[in-house]
Amino acid sequence: MKLSQVAFGLICLLIHPLILEAQLSPGPLAEPHAHLSGFTDCLTCHTWGSKDLSPKCLECHTPIQARIANELGFHGNLEEKNCSTCHTDHMDRNFEMIHWEPSQKDFDHLKTGYEIEGKHLKLNCNECHKSDFIVSEDILEYAKSQKTRDVLSTTFMGLGSKCASCHVDVHAGEFLEQTCEDCHNENNWADARKDYDHDFETEFPLRGAHKRVVCEKCHTASQPAVADFKPLQFTGLKFNLCTNCHEDKHKGSFGSNCLKCHTETTFKQKDVAGAFNHQTTRYPLVGMHTTVDCELCHTNKDRFTLESSFDQCSDCHPDHHKGIFLKPDRDNSCDQCHSVRGFFPPLFGVIEHRNTRFVIDGAHLAQPCIFCHKQNEQPVYQWEPLACKSCHTTIHGEQFSRYQAGGNWCESCHKTSDWVNLSFDHSATFFPLTGKHEDLVCTACHPSKNDVIQYEDIDTSCGECHTDAHQKQFEARLCEDCHSTKAWQIPAFDHLKLSEFPLDEQHKAVACGQCHKFESALSTIRFKPIPHKCQDCHSFGDFKG
Amino acid sequence: MIRAKSHNYVIILLSLLTIAFLVLYSIQSMTYLNTPVEERYLLKEMDGLYGPSGLYGHGVGFLAAFFMFLLWLYIIRKRWNRLRGLGRLSQWLKYHMWFGIVAPLLAGYHAAFKFEGLIGVMYWAMIAVMASGIVGRYLYGHIPRRRDGHEMSMKQINTEKASKLRSLQMEFGILPEDINRLKGLTPELSGVGTLVALYHLAAFDIRRRYQLKKILKDFEAKYGVSKQNLIFFKETVEKQLIMSQRVIVLDAVSKVFHWWHVIHKPFAYAIFIVLTLHIILTISFGFTWIF
Question: How far is CA B29 from CA A343, B22, B40, in A?
């Protein structure tokens, strides 16, 4: 083989179309453009004299061209107009022409004009971006025109922004006039109930107890099931009559307008103005009667018109006093003492009590009624006999029992104003208080025995209370002979009358202690016997003059 | 007329400038070049500078293409008789070689070293041309030539070799046993294959400096060559030895050198064609660099 032949062969090999194409092309086209590979296909994308590929790109990618022209979607809002800046090619057959910033998972979806929020954030891209959800006509047509690849399974475009483009309308077309966002949000499908403003959005504003009722109570699952979901019926509900939803407990006896008696706040109309007006009946409700449940009086649920009488309180109320106030000779009506404003407090007060056997005064005025009128947990309104001991317990034990036969003997000493402030007169006793005795407290003379202060059978002799300071020197005499209750000191002892030694002459000037001296053996002053001969006191030396 | 050494200086200067430029370019584009090819376009700013169509990358490509075309001046000078008077062919060859080494390097930077697959074929062809050029230049240097650069015939070589031996005997009085010693440095290689011959060629080149040093030392001591004749003596001994060694591998070298053309030339032609198409195509598609 000649050298020239070998050289020619090598040249031919090197400029073989495959190799030559590889040299003239920067690299293999990515898979989506693979059908455009070829030495003669350059001008399918490239333009003579311009490196801007965008016009040729958009010539083929017509859906993107339309979105750019209309400034819609991701491409329609890009500042970069050169397609190849983001979608470069000639890298490799397996090259991914879509580069996600920062990643497909973290792509800022707001750039597409559709912000992803709530639960949509947790979805993978392909859970929404799949061919089944593509609704854009131009994408569908474009996909049909592309014979070489499956556009619908690869494109991210063409999804509708309406919920129904991906989600099944479980309401089965109930809300065709509204959008899903009117009721639902992207965080939680069930949150719709909280956000939905029934007052403005419907012809049946929720009032009173209707606000607290769960939706399903009225909007029952009467629609055909969608998969496992049983949709509630939200439209077409009849609501012009209460009986559309509520059962007529009165079996039609009060007509069809429930609002004559009931309100939406509560079926048991209690305190609702504009509800059933009991005042128009034969028995206008006043006071506490306005607050009681209807059933308390209207015991027959099927019939509210009372067949029995309701003139007397006792027609409904039991007699708390068990008939003790029922007297044939007087008005026995309850409103003598009570009113419909309440059983308590009664109208029977202190003033009315004056007409009874027991006038309330003094400390009794401060006591609640039940202090007296409730004993052993039982109401008490009558006492026979009516005495202090009916309520009070004596602290004097068996003392004064001899006086009890006379009735209210307590008043002899005590007053209703104060227990301690006595009306007792000691001068009426066997021992009128005089002198220093008037200054003493009672217990100084009335000792306590078995926790009972003794008032009866008190020994009134001085020695019962006082100690004999003279150590029995005057046993034969009475204390009163020398002392009085005014003071212990004897102001003017009559030595002439009361002693055997009359004081005279010089003896009158002698101090008592000169003769009556303290004697240790006696432990007191010696008053008697005192030797009273002259030499008993005087010596011969004393008489000098 | 520029002297041969001046051309060497010019080439050294150009080489230093090129090395400095490529080092600076490598440092600046390090990040870009270290990034996987398929991700480079994401480095938009760097891609606009160092990518094949970037400001610097495309500029380097222009320079590489310019050098590629300058390569052909040597061929034109060689083939076109009218240019014979325009410098010595060996000097043209130096520039041809320099461009042949630098242009593929620049082309590599222009392509941002993207050589995978078929697209790399032409680059490796370019490298093959460069490598074959270096080998060829090595072989070229082992084919004895006249001063005008044309190959000497075998007769001319043998005459030259005999002339050198005679000169040694007559002018320096080298004795026959020493002539034989000098001849003995070149072994008999008759009947060996081309590859063995090329091995000996390389071995001669490696051993020659040591052989010459030793034999010249002995000859100087023995024959007392005067200082004024020493350089001429050394040149004569060296040329005689080189001539002797090259003669015995001349057939093999000539054969390989001629086959070398099979690599170097076709590849060069193919590169020229592809390069031309590449330039036409890119310019046609609007990649006109700064123009």
Answer: 101, 10, 11
| The 3-state secondary structure of B102-141, one letter per residue | HHHHHHHHHCCCCCCHHHHHHHHHHHHHHHHHHHHHHHHH
Question: pTM to 2 decimals?
Answer: 0.56
Helix H segments across A49-113? 54-60, 62-69, 73-76, 83-86
The answer to whether residue B17 sits within a structural domain is yes
**Structurally, how many domains does chain B consist of?**
2
Amino acid identity for residue A54 in this structure? S
- Residue B248 lies inside a defined structural domain of this protein: yes
Domain that holds residue B239: 154-258
Peptide bond into A102 cis (omega under 30): yes
Nearest CA in chain B to A52: B286
Specify if B290 maps to a domain: no
Interface probe for B, chosen from A1, A2, A23 (most Cβ of B below 10 Å), is A23
Shared domain check, B79 and B41: yes
- Inter-residue contact B272 to B158 (CB < 8 Å): no
Least Cα distance to A320 among A259, A353, A369 occurs for A369
Instruction: State the smallest CA–CA distance between residue A98 and chain B in angstroms.
Output: 11
B129 and B270 share one domain? yes
- Do A92 and A27 meet the contact criterion of CB atoms below 8 Å apart? yes
Dihedral pair phi/psi, residue A315, rounded to 5°: -65, -30
In this structure, are strands A452-453 and A448-449 parallel, antiparallel, or unpaired? antiparallel
**Minimal CA–CA distance to B188: which of B177, B200, B174, B179?**
B200
Each of the 291 residues of chain B gets a pLDDT tens digit; together they read 556 678 899 999 999 999 999 999 999 999 999 999 888 988 989 999 999 999 999 999 999 999 999 999 998 998 888 888 888 888 898 899 999 999 999 999 999 988 876 667 778 888 888 888 888 888 888 888 776 667 787 788 888 878 887 887 887 788 888 888 878 888 777 777 888 888 888 888 888 888 888 888 888 788 777 777 777 777 888 887 888 888 888 888 888 887 777 778 888 888 888 888 889 988 999 998 888
Asked whether A452 and A399 are in contact (CB, 8 A), the reply is yes
Nearest-neighbour CA in chain A from B108: distance (Å): 13
Q: Are residues B165 and B64 in the same domain?
A: no
Asked if residue B132 and residue B51 are part of one domain, the reply reads yes
Do both B109 and B228 map to the same domain? Answer: no
Q: Does some domain include residue B289? A: no
**Do residue B14 and residue B130 come from a single domain?**
yes
Contact B277 A24 (CB under 8 A): yes
User: Which amino acid, residue A392?
Assistant: H
**Nearest one of A307, A342, A334 to A297, comparing CA atoms:** A307
* B4 C-beta neighbours (distance < 10 Å), count: 12
Mapped onto helix, strand or coil, the DSSP state of residue A226 is: strand
Q: B178 and B46 share a domain?
A: no
Cα distance from B197 to chain A (closest Cα, Å)? 22
CA–CA separation, A196 and A238 (whole Å):
20
B255 at the A interface (CB within 8 A)?
no
Residues B130 and B99 reside in one and the same domain: yes
Q: Alpha carbon B203 to chain centroid distance?
A: 19
Angle formed by the axes of helices B121-141 and B227-284, nearest 10°? 160
